[in-house]
Automatic annotation (TrEMBL):
Binding-site residues for ATP, renumbered to this chain: A6, M7, S8, G9, G10, V11, D12, S13, L32, G125
Family classification: Belongs to the MnmA/TRMU family.
InterPro entries, per database record: MnmA-like (IPR004506), MnmA-like_C (IPR046885), MnmA-like_central (IPR046884), MnmA-like_central_sf (IPR023382), Rossmann-like_a/b/a_fold (IPR014729)
Residue intervals of the tRNA-specific 2-thiouridylase MnmA-like central domain: 202-267
Official protein name in the record: tRNA-specific 2-thiouridylase MnmA
Protein backbone atom coordinates (compact mmCIF):
# COMPACT_ATOMS: atom_id res chain seq x y z
CA UNK A 1 0.00 0.00 0.00
CA UNK A 2 1.27 3.49 -0.85
CA UNK A 3 1.05 5.58 2.31
CA UNK A 4 1.63 9.29 2.73
CA UNK A 5 2.61 10.10 6.32
CA UNK A 6 1.96 13.62 7.61
CA UNK A 7 5.15 14.34 9.59
CA UNK A 8 4.93 17.31 11.96
CA UNK A 9 8.45 16.86 13.28
CA UNK A 10 7.22 15.53 16.60
CA UNK A 11 7.68 12.14 18.20
CA UNK A 12 4.18 10.84 17.48
CA UNK A 13 4.17 11.26 13.70
CA UNK A 14 7.77 10.08 13.55
CA UNK A 15 6.92 6.75 15.20
CA UNK A 16 3.80 6.52 13.02
CA UNK A 17 6.02 6.78 9.93
CA UNK A 18 8.44 4.19 11.31
CA UNK A 19 5.62 1.73 11.96
CA UNK A 20 4.32 2.16 8.42
CA UNK A 21 7.80 1.34 7.09
CA UNK A 22 8.02 -1.70 9.36
CA UNK A 23 4.66 -2.89 8.03
CA UNK A 24 6.15 -3.05 4.55
CA UNK A 25 4.25 -0.16 2.97
CA UNK A 26 5.61 2.16 0.31
CA UNK A 27 5.96 5.24 2.54
CA UNK A 28 6.52 8.90 1.70
CA UNK A 29 6.79 11.60 4.37
CA UNK A 30 5.37 15.08 3.95
CA UNK A 31 5.60 18.10 6.23
CA UNK A 32 2.87 20.71 5.95
CA UNK A 33 4.11 24.30 5.79
CA UNK A 34 1.18 26.11 7.41
CA UNK A 35 2.68 29.57 7.77
CA UNK A 36 4.20 32.05 5.34
CA UNK A 37 6.63 32.89 8.16
CA UNK A 38 7.29 29.43 9.64
CA UNK A 39 10.01 30.62 12.00
CA UNK A 40 7.35 32.38 14.07
CA UNK A 41 5.27 29.35 14.93
CA UNK A 42 7.21 27.71 17.75
CA UNK A 43 8.21 28.98 21.16
CA UNK A 44 9.47 26.00 23.17
CA UNK A 45 6.53 23.64 23.47
CA UNK A 46 4.09 26.20 22.09
CA UNK A 47 3.20 26.27 18.43
CA UNK A 48 4.28 23.96 15.65
CA UNK A 49 5.17 23.78 11.96
CA UNK A 50 8.30 25.90 12.32
CA UNK A 51 11.51 25.56 10.32
CA UNK A 52 12.84 23.59 13.29
CA UNK A 53 9.93 21.15 12.98
CA UNK A 54 10.44 20.73 9.24
CA UNK A 55 14.11 19.99 9.85
CA UNK A 56 13.29 17.46 12.55
CA UNK A 57 10.83 15.70 10.24
CA UNK A 58 13.39 15.59 7.42
CA UNK A 59 16.02 14.04 9.70
CA UNK A 60 13.58 11.34 10.81
CA UNK A 61 12.74 10.59 7.18
CA UNK A 62 16.47 10.24 6.45
CA UNK A 63 16.86 7.76 9.33
CA UNK A 64 13.89 5.77 8.02
CA UNK A 65 15.14 5.94 4.45
CA UNK A 66 11.92 7.34 2.98
CA UNK A 67 11.35 10.19 0.52
CA UNK A 68 10.41 13.48 2.16
CA UNK A 69 8.71 16.61 0.89
CA UNK A 70 7.39 19.90 2.25
CA UNK A 71 3.99 20.94 0.91
CA UNK A 72 2.87 24.55 1.19
CA UNK A 73 -0.61 24.77 2.69
CA UNK A 74 -0.15 28.22 4.26
CA UNK A 75 -2.86 29.99 2.24
CA UNK A 76 -5.37 27.21 2.75
CA UNK A 77 -4.58 27.03 6.48
CA UNK A 78 -5.03 30.77 6.89
CA UNK A 79 -8.38 30.74 5.11
CA UNK A 80 -9.87 27.55 6.51
CA UNK A 81 -8.48 27.55 10.04
CA UNK A 82 -7.12 30.92 11.18
CA UNK A 83 -9.70 33.14 9.48
CA UNK A 84 -12.48 30.77 10.56
CA UNK A 85 -11.18 30.92 14.14
CA UNK A 86 -11.18 34.74 14.16
CA UNK A 87 -14.61 35.03 12.54
CA UNK A 88 -16.10 32.51 14.93
CA UNK A 89 -14.84 34.39 18.00
CA UNK A 90 -16.19 37.65 16.55
CA UNK A 91 -19.60 35.94 16.51
CA UNK A 92 -19.28 35.14 20.21
CA UNK A 93 -18.46 31.47 19.59
CA UNK A 94 -15.71 29.23 20.95
CA UNK A 95 -14.28 27.14 18.09
CA UNK A 96 -11.67 24.39 18.24
CA UNK A 97 -9.08 25.06 15.50
CA UNK A 98 -7.66 21.53 15.73
CA UNK A 99 -11.05 20.18 14.67
CA UNK A 100 -11.11 22.53 11.67
CA UNK A 101 -7.53 21.66 10.73
CA UNK A 102 -8.30 17.94 10.64
CA UNK A 103 -11.57 18.50 8.82
CA UNK A 104 -10.35 20.94 6.17
CA UNK A 105 -6.59 20.51 5.89
CA UNK A 106 -5.18 17.13 6.91
CA UNK A 107 -8.07 14.93 5.84
CA UNK A 108 -9.49 17.12 3.09
CA UNK A 109 -6.92 19.21 1.23
CA UNK A 110 -3.97 16.95 2.07
CA UNK A 111 -5.88 13.72 1.54
CA UNK A 112 -7.29 14.95 -1.78
CA UNK A 113 -3.80 15.72 -3.06
CA UNK A 114 -2.53 12.37 -1.80
CA UNK A 115 -5.30 10.46 -3.56
CA UNK A 116 -4.70 12.44 -6.77
CA UNK A 117 -1.05 11.38 -6.63
CA UNK A 118 -1.95 7.72 -6.33
CA UNK A 119 -1.56 7.16 -2.58
CA UNK A 120 -3.89 4.69 -0.92
CA UNK A 121 -3.94 6.22 2.54
CA UNK A 122 -2.81 9.10 4.74
CA UNK A 123 -1.24 8.18 8.08
CA UNK A 124 -0.87 10.59 11.00
CA UNK A 125 0.40 10.53 14.57
CA UNK A 126 -3.03 11.06 16.11
CA UNK A 127 -3.95 9.08 19.19
CA UNK A 128 -7.02 7.25 17.92
CA UNK A 129 -7.89 3.81 16.56
CA UNK A 130 -9.77 2.46 13.56
CA UNK A 131 -11.53 -0.89 13.76
CA UNK A 132 -13.68 -2.17 10.89
CA UNK A 133 -13.88 1.37 9.60
CA UNK A 134 -15.12 2.70 12.93
CA UNK A 135 -13.27 5.47 14.76
CA UNK A 136 -12.46 4.67 18.38
CA UNK A 137 -10.71 6.26 21.33
CA UNK A 138 -7.00 5.63 21.79
CA UNK A 139 -5.69 3.20 24.37
CA UNK A 140 -4.02 6.15 26.14
CA UNK A 141 -7.04 8.02 27.51
CA UNK A 142 -4.95 11.03 28.51
CA UNK A 143 -3.74 11.51 24.93
CA UNK A 144 -6.89 10.42 23.11
CA UNK A 145 -7.61 12.60 20.04
CA UNK A 146 -10.74 10.89 18.73
CA UNK A 147 -12.65 14.05 19.68
CA UNK A 148 -10.82 16.24 17.15
CA UNK A 149 -11.14 13.53 14.47
CA UNK A 150 -14.88 13.00 14.89
CA UNK A 151 -15.65 15.44 12.06
CA UNK A 152 -14.24 13.00 9.51
CA UNK A 153 -16.61 11.28 7.12
CA UNK A 154 -16.74 7.55 6.49
CA UNK A 155 -14.98 8.11 3.15
CA UNK A 156 -12.19 10.11 4.78
CA UNK A 157 -11.73 7.46 7.46
CA UNK A 158 -11.53 4.79 4.77
CA UNK A 159 -8.25 6.36 3.60
CA UNK A 160 -6.88 7.16 7.09
CA UNK A 161 -4.41 5.25 9.25
CA UNK A 162 -3.57 5.95 12.89
CA UNK A 163 -0.58 3.71 13.64
CA UNK A 164 0.05 4.72 17.28
CA UNK A 165 -3.46 4.74 18.77
CA UNK A 166 -2.92 1.34 20.37
CA UNK A 167 0.08 2.47 22.44
CA UNK A 168 0.46 4.72 25.52
CA UNK A 169 2.56 7.85 25.01
CA UNK A 170 5.47 6.85 27.28
CA UNK A 171 5.97 3.72 25.18
CA UNK A 172 5.95 5.82 22.00
CA UNK A 173 8.83 7.90 23.39
CA UNK A 174 10.70 4.74 24.40
CA UNK A 175 10.22 3.31 20.92
CA UNK A 176 11.50 6.50 19.29
CA UNK A 177 14.60 6.36 21.48
CA UNK A 178 15.23 2.71 20.58
CA UNK A 179 14.96 3.61 16.91
CA UNK A 180 17.53 6.37 17.35
CA UNK A 181 15.13 9.17 16.49
CA UNK A 182 16.37 12.51 17.85
CA UNK A 183 12.79 13.67 18.53
CA UNK A 184 12.26 11.05 21.25
CA UNK A 185 12.40 13.68 24.02
CA UNK A 186 11.02 16.62 22.04
CA UNK A 187 8.32 18.46 24.05
CA UNK A 188 4.72 18.02 22.92
CA UNK A 189 3.11 21.02 21.30
CA UNK A 190 0.20 22.46 23.22
CA UNK A 191 -2.30 25.31 23.05
CA UNK A 192 -3.19 26.77 19.65
CA UNK A 193 -0.42 26.17 17.13
CA UNK A 194 -0.73 29.53 15.37
CA UNK A 195 -0.66 31.51 18.64
CA UNK A 196 2.78 30.55 20.02
CA UNK A 197 2.60 33.35 22.60
CA UNK A 198 -0.43 31.69 24.19
CA UNK A 199 -2.20 35.08 24.36
CA UNK A 200 -5.42 34.35 22.47
CA UNK A 201 -7.09 37.61 23.50
CA UNK A 202 -4.22 39.71 22.10
CA UNK A 203 -4.14 37.65 18.89
CA UNK A 204 -7.86 38.16 18.34
CA UNK A 205 -7.79 41.82 19.35
CA UNK A 206 -5.14 42.58 16.73
CA UNK A 207 -7.37 41.11 14.02
CA UNK A 208 -10.86 42.05 15.17
CA UNK A 209 -10.15 45.43 16.73
CA UNK A 210 -12.04 47.23 19.48
CA UNK A 211 -15.78 46.61 19.63
CA UNK A 212 -16.81 48.04 22.96
CA UNK A 213 -19.76 46.71 24.91
CA UNK A 214 -21.05 46.06 28.40
CA UNK A 215 -20.73 43.30 30.96
CA UNK A 216 -24.12 42.90 32.65
CA UNK A 217 -25.60 40.69 35.35
CA UNK A 218 -28.72 38.53 35.08
CA UNK A 219 -30.93 41.55 35.82
CA UNK A 220 -29.30 43.56 33.03
CA UNK A 221 -27.39 45.86 35.38
CA UNK A 222 -24.19 47.13 33.80
CA UNK A 223 -21.12 46.03 35.74
CA UNK A 224 -18.26 47.01 33.44
CA UNK A 225 -17.22 47.93 29.90
CA UNK A 226 -15.19 45.69 27.60
CA UNK A 227 -13.33 46.03 24.29
CA UNK A 228 -14.91 43.12 22.43
CA UNK A 229 -16.81 39.87 22.91
CA UNK A 230 -13.83 38.02 21.42
CA UNK A 231 -12.17 38.35 24.83
CA UNK A 232 -14.74 36.11 26.52
CA UNK A 233 -15.93 32.50 26.48
CA UNK A 234 -18.82 30.79 28.22
CA UNK A 235 -17.76 29.63 31.68
CA UNK A 236 -14.93 32.15 31.98
CA UNK A 237 -14.30 33.35 35.52
CA UNK A 238 -11.19 35.51 35.40
CA UNK A 239 -10.49 38.67 33.43
CA UNK A 240 -14.11 39.85 33.43
CA UNK A 241 -13.24 43.40 34.46
CA UNK A 242 -15.77 43.43 37.29
CA UNK A 243 -15.18 44.20 40.94
CA UNK A 244 -15.50 41.21 43.21
CA UNK A 245 -18.06 38.38 43.40
CA UNK A 246 -21.84 38.56 43.06
CA UNK A 247 -24.27 39.73 45.74
CA UNK A 248 -24.30 36.20 47.17
CA UNK A 249 -20.54 36.33 47.67
CA UNK A 250 -19.91 33.64 45.07
CA UNK A 251 -17.77 33.95 41.92
CA UNK A 252 -19.38 35.11 38.69
CA UNK A 253 -18.92 33.48 35.32
CA UNK A 254 -19.67 34.37 31.72
CA UNK A 255 -23.08 32.82 31.04
CA UNK A 256 -23.96 34.40 27.70
CA UNK A 257 -22.50 36.40 24.82
CA UNK A 258 -24.53 38.53 22.39
CA UNK A 259 -22.25 39.63 19.54
CA UNK A 260 -24.97 41.80 17.94
CA UNK A 261 -25.20 44.08 20.98
CA UNK A 262 -21.66 43.35 22.23
CA UNK A 263 -23.17 42.31 25.55
CA UNK A 264 -21.51 39.82 27.90
CA UNK A 265 -23.75 38.36 30.61
CA UNK A 266 -22.41 37.01 33.89
CA UNK A 267 -24.03 34.92 36.58
CA UNK A 268 -23.59 32.16 39.11
CA UNK A 269 -22.09 28.75 38.45
CA UNK A 270 -25.55 27.16 38.43
CA UNK A 271 -26.49 29.40 35.50
CA UNK A 272 -23.97 27.48 33.38
CA UNK A 273 -25.94 24.22 33.59
CA UNK A 274 -26.94 22.97 30.13
CA UNK A 275 -29.46 20.17 29.69
CA UNK A 276 -30.02 20.32 25.92
CA UNK A 277 -27.53 20.68 23.07
CA UNK A 278 -28.36 21.52 19.46
CA UNK A 279 -25.69 20.82 16.85
CA UNK A 280 -25.50 21.85 13.20
CA UNK A 281 -23.66 20.29 10.24
CA UNK A 282 -23.73 16.74 11.65
CA UNK A 283 -21.29 14.10 10.49
CA UNK A 284 -21.82 10.41 11.21
CA UNK A 285 -18.61 8.43 10.99
CA UNK A 286 -20.35 5.26 9.76
CA UNK A 287 -21.79 7.19 6.84
CA UNK A 288 -25.39 6.55 7.97
CA UNK A 289 -27.46 8.87 10.13
CA UNK A 290 -29.48 7.35 12.99
CA UNK A 291 -33.14 6.70 12.22
CA UNK A 292 -34.35 7.40 15.75
CA UNK A 293 -33.20 8.35 19.26
CA UNK A 294 -29.88 6.81 20.35
CA UNK A 295 -28.36 6.44 23.78
CA UNK A 296 -24.92 7.99 23.82
CA UNK A 297 -22.14 9.65 25.69
CA UNK A 298 -21.53 13.21 24.53
CA UNK A 299 -18.25 15.09 24.81
CA UNK A 300 -18.04 18.86 24.28
CA UNK A 301 -14.34 19.55 24.84
CA UNK A 302 -11.18 17.82 23.67
CA UNK A 303 -10.43 16.76 27.24
CA UNK A 304 -13.43 16.64 29.54
CA UNK A 305 -17.03 17.77 29.38
CA UNK A 306 -18.54 14.27 29.06
CA UNK A 307 -22.11 13.32 29.91
CA UNK A 308 -24.78 10.71 29.15
CA UNK A 309 -27.82 11.50 27.07
CA UNK A 310 -30.12 10.71 24.18
CA UNK A 311 -29.37 12.09 20.71
CA UNK A 312 -31.76 12.44 17.82
CA UNK A 313 -31.61 13.94 14.34
CA UNK A 314 -34.32 16.59 13.94
CA UNK A 315 -34.65 18.67 10.78
CA UNK A 316 -31.00 18.14 9.92
CA UNK A 317 -29.75 19.03 13.40
CA UNK A 318 -28.50 16.85 16.23
CA UNK A 319 -30.45 17.40 19.44
CA UNK A 320 -29.02 15.87 22.63
CA UNK A 321 -31.07 15.68 25.83
CA UNK A 322 -28.64 15.20 28.72
CA UNK A 323 -29.31 13.09 31.79
CA UNK A 324 -27.10 15.34 33.91
CA UNK A 325 -26.15 18.89 32.98
CA UNK A 326 -22.83 19.96 31.50
CA UNK A 327 -21.15 23.28 32.20
CA UNK A 328 -18.96 25.56 30.14
CA UNK A 329 -20.71 24.70 26.88
CA UNK A 330 -20.54 27.34 24.16
CA UNK A 331 -21.74 27.78 20.58
CA UNK A 332 -18.96 26.95 18.14
CA UNK A 333 -17.70 24.01 20.17
CA UNK A 334 -17.92 20.53 18.71
CA UNK A 335 -20.15 17.92 20.30
CA UNK A 336 -19.03 14.34 19.75
CA UNK A 337 -21.23 11.32 20.28
CA UNK A 338 -19.80 8.03 21.56
CA UNK A 339 -21.47 4.65 21.80
CA UNK A 340 -22.23 4.02 25.51
CA UNK A 341 -20.96 0.44 25.62
CA UNK A 342 -18.75 -0.70 28.52
CA UNK A 343 -15.68 0.63 26.72
CA UNK A 344 -17.45 3.79 25.53
CA UNK A 345 -14.85 4.20 22.84
CA UNK A 346 -16.64 4.17 19.45
CA UNK A 347 -17.30 7.53 17.83
CA UNK A 348 -20.81 7.75 16.38
CA UNK A 349 -20.65 11.28 15.00
CA UNK A 350 -20.25 14.97 15.64
CA UNK A 351 -21.84 18.37 15.11
CA UNK A 352 -21.05 22.02 15.76
CA UNK A 353 -22.95 23.39 18.74
CA UNK A 354 -25.40 26.10 17.71
CA UNK A 355 -27.09 26.52 21.09
Amino acid sequence: MRVLVAMSGGVDSSVAAARMVDAGHDVVGVHLALSSAPGTLRTGSRGCCSKEDAGDARRVADVLGIPFYVWDFADRFKEDVIDDFVTSYARGETPNPCVRCNERIKFSALAARAMALGFDAVATGHYARLSDGRLRRAVDADKDQSYVLAVLTAEQLRHAVFPIGDTPKPQIRDEAARRGLAVADKPDSHDICFIPSGDTRAFLGARIGVRRGAVVDAAGTKLADHDGVHGFTIGQRKGLGIAGPGPDGRPRYVTGIDPDTATVRVGAADDLDVWTLVGERPVFTSGAAPTGPIECQVQVRAHGGIGDGVAELRDGRVVVELRTPLRGVAPGQTLVLYRPDPAGDEVLGSATIAR
